[in-house]
Amino acid sequence: MKLKKVLALTMVATMAVGAFVGCGSKGEGKSAKSDSGKVYYLNFKPEADEAWQALAKEYTKETGVNVTVVTAASNKYEETLMAEMSKSEAPTLFHVNGPVGLKNWKDYALDLSDSDVYKNLNGDEYALKDGDEVKGIAMAVETYGIITNTKLLQEAGYTVDDIQSFDDLKKVAEDITARKDQLGFAAFTSAGMDDSSDWRFKTHLSNLPIYFEYEAENETSTDAIKGTYLDNYKNIYDLYINNSTCDPKELSSKTSEDTLNEFREGKAVFYQNGSWEYGNVAKAFKDDELKMIPIYIGVGDEKNQGLCTGTENYWCVNSAADEKDIQATLDFMNWCVSSDKGTTAMADDMGFVIPFKDAKDTDNVFVQKDKELQAAGKTTIPWDFTTIPSEQWKADLSSALTAYAAGTGSWDDVKTAFVDGWAKEYKAANQE
């Protein structure tokens, strides 16, 4: 469906106030200048909402420019963006998740070729282009894998060095499960399939079979995925759901907060998530008690496999906004990635690696682990899930995975959602 038609439809709908996690502030100290423009940032990452609210207040205090930050609820960004862009006071700064996401929004995305924030990028690999125009800029590079409680792992008689493959991970996880009552903890946190958590499996975990198929086929995208490595996808998902803190039938109601709390409370050794969770888990652990290991699925040279590192967080500036608001937004973006206050907040409070020349390094141990593995020559797994054809594909895959875990659906249903759903959604997204 064409974007303008979608926007027209959303204009007749009312978005609930509860769709937003945060709202902007008018700042403190110096009042905003009426002639300086304003910024409305529709933030993609709920876990960074508090940090963005604080940074927006700091910028308003320093410059007098009003910055409003609204954070879409988890898994609701696209529909929230559609609703907000149909309003007279639309976001001036928004996100797309890569080339697929840009297709919907390129007519609303300002060419950033002459902007200071683009000139501050470390390289063009962090720019999202449409022809010669720079339509988006990566605002963060992130890493995900299996976060590991090394203290519990040691209590179970292992170290992370014992896990160099899927077979190793399976052996350790199943041994922990066999001794679960004796040890007092499980192997994995719950693979929550609630909307707040299912993206870890329908998107981040599915990245592995997508990546390995692309490698085998020498592709970077496809209109029809074969599902070559779906048996491996099944194996790792089975390992998660059968060696966790709860019965697989309970996963449909398990939230991201549930899984985070399970890990922080020492109820499980392993927790699939990313570098963005460092601030949350670090509150309960010393740095040497946390490691991140690769997500092994039994494919390729696993001893030389690294973590999954990439981005789906591209900033776009609304080209339809008032010129003063556009300039205010460009100034705010550049301040965030070049000033000491901005880069410190993004590195320390948000845990981001930001790909800009003036960026502050982060002490995030998961990011440091990624650097260590890259320096050792390990193969980084890119974020190929940005080529997934639609949000509907993810939703259908999530439903199939949830039903499979609950025993009300089969793995064949997962295969159908993965393979047939891909072809269907790709065709729908690319029809003229």
| Topology order in helix (H) and strand (E) letters | HEHEHEHHEEEHHHEHHHHEHEEEHHHEHH
Overall form: globular
Major sheet description:
6 strands, mixed
DSSP strand tally? 12
Rg calc: 22 Å
Poorly predicted regions are 1-34
- Summed up, the helix count is 18
Strand-residue proportion = 5-15%
Distance between the termini: 9 Å
**What helical percentage do the residues reach?**
40-55%
- Report mean pLDDT, rounded to a whole number: 91
Q: What class, by secondary structure content?
A: alpha/beta
Describe the structure.
The structure is a single chain. A hairpin with a 2-residue loop joins strand 4 (127-130) and strand 5 (133-138). With 432 residues, the chain is α/β, with parallel strands linked by helices. Helix content is 42%, strand content 14%.
Would you kindly provide a brief summary of this structure?
With 432 residues, this protein is of the alpha/beta class. It contains 18 helices and 12 strands.
Keywords:
6-stranded mixed beta sheet; 432 residues; alpha/beta; disordered N terminus
Secondary-structure map with pairings?
Layout: H1 3-10, E1 39-43, H2 49-63, E2 67-71, H3 77-85, E3 93-96, H4 99-105, H5 116-119, E4 127-130, E5 133-138, E6 142-149, H6 150-155, H7 166-178, H8 180-183, E7 186-188, H9 199-205, H10 207-217, H11 230-242, H12 256-264, E8 268-274, H13 278-281, E9 290-293, E10 305-310, E11 314-317, H14 323-338, H15 340-349, H16 365-375, E12 379-381, H17 391-406, H18 411-430
Parallel strand pairs: 1-2, 7-8, 10-12
Antiparallel strand pairs: 3-11, 4-5, 5-11, 6-8, 6-9, 6-10
Helix pairs in contact: 2-15, 9-17, 14-15, 17-18
